[in-house]
Amino acid sequence: MRPTATLRCCALLLVLSQLGLPVRADDWPQWMGPQRDGVWRETGIVEAFPKDGPPVRWRVKIGGGYAGPAVVGDRVFVTDKLLPTGATNPNNPFERGRQAATERVLCLNDADGSVVWKHEYSCPYTVSYPAGPRTTPVVRDDRVYTLGSEGHLLCLNAQDGTVVWSKNFKEEYGRRTTPVWGYSANPLLDGDRLICLVGGEGTTVVAFHKDTGKELWRALDSTDRHGPGYGSPIIVEAGGQRQLIVWHPSAVSSLDPTTGKVFWNQPFDVKEGLTVATPRVSGDKLFVSAFYDGSLLLKLDATKPAASVVWRRHGQNERLTDALHCLISTPVIDNGHIYGACSYGEFRCLDLATGDRKWSTFQPTSGESLRWGTAFIVKHEDRYFLFSEKGDLIVAKLSPPPTRNSAEPTCLSPPARPNAATSSGPTPPSPTVPYTPATTRKSFPCRWRRSRTPEDLSPRGWGRASSPAPRGVIARMLGARRLDPSHTPHTRELHGCWRSRRMSARGRPPGSPQRRRISSSEKGDKSLSETRPAATG
Question: Is 91 exposed, middle or buried (0-12, 13-18, 19+ CB in 10 A)?
Answer without folding.
Answer: exposed
